[in-house]
Design goal:
This protein is 66% helix and 0% strand. The protein has 8 helices and no strands. Bound molecules: fe (ii) ion (2 copies). Its cofactor is Fe cation.
Length: 231
Amino acid sequence: MPTAAPPVDLGVHYQPAGLSDRFALGVTRFLRLFADTFFAKRYGHRAVVLETVAAVPGMVGATLNHLKCLRRMQDDRGWIRTLMDEAENERMHLMTFIEVCKPTAFERFMVIAAQWVFYLFFFGLYLIAPKTAHRLVGYFEEEAVISYTHYLAEIDAGRSANVPAPAIALRYWDLPADATLRDVVLVVRADEAHHRDVNHGFANDLAGQPQGQIAPCPPHVELQPTWKTAA
Ligand SMILES: [Fe+2]
Ligand SMILES: [Fe+2]
């Protein structure tokens, strides 16, 4: 039996409370429209390309919080590790979906172009408005939960083949040997729900509001480094 993915509340939506929240929601809706138009129902391709973007904010947030804590000589309350874990988790999503779906040459070009633009945009945004940056990620993750729910529906309807889970996914989420793509999408969606709530929680914290409920994260196995060779 595959490991049961933690339950996901699909109905979570943070109501924008001010101009910065509305800006974050507006950017998210615009990018969603762009992704819907470009990828339509090609969920595997959508996952590969968007996970290359999703893995950026955590590392930017971790870097800038790290530098801030060094400058101010203060504790980070666990934010840096949380954000680094998010970045790694999103990269593992990418390493998983790249085994399921190979991007086209044009998509690979898009990934390179998008990384330049998005990294610089998000770095600048986090520097001047970290609350807006976390709210933006919270909204991105709300959309990720919706997209992976659509992907599940495609698999259940037989329109996307429910292929065996890639080996890296079996190791990272400790899934049983007979796990399939459907099991993988379930744990990935639970990861996204966790990031959604963590980032809305960080934005709330920066606004001086209560953090709110945080969806549980599926267990992740720490992968051992393979760059170390025996002497
Ligand atoms: Fe992801
Ligand atoms: Fe995510």
